[in-house]
Amino acid sequence: MSAFAIFVIPFREHFTIFATICNKTILMLKKHRDKQKELKDIRREMGSDLSPDPEQLAPEKRLSV
Fold first, then answer.
1. Half-sphere exposure (CA, 13 Å, Cβ side) for 22?
2. What DSSP assignment string belongs to 15-65?
3. Are 62 and 54 in contact (CB under 8 A)?
4. Which residue has the higher pLDDT, 17 or 58?
């Protein structure tokens, strides 16, 4: 029984630490995603996201007429 306790207790502690790190990472990514959406909405309201200036586009992305 002592061998079982030696294996299970550290495993549970490591799993708890791993789960905590995963949860914090997920929360951080959600906050980053929300911030990016907010910035995109602000850019859209300002009009810069709707029609980019053709001079600012890379040459391979410009439309040739």
1. 6
2. HHHHHHHHHHHHHHHHHHHHHHHHHHHHHHHHTTTTS--TTTS-GGGSPP-
3. yes
4. 17
pTM: 0.49
Place of tokens 């709707």: 50
40 with 49: CB under 8 angstroms?
Answer: yes
What confidence score (pLDDT) does residue 2 get?
A: 61
21-48 residue pLDDT tens: 999 999 999 999 999 999 999 888 887 5
Rounded to an integer, what distance in angstroms lies between the CA atom of residue 48 and that of residue 18?
A: 42
Residues 38, 32 contacting (CB under 8 angstroms): no
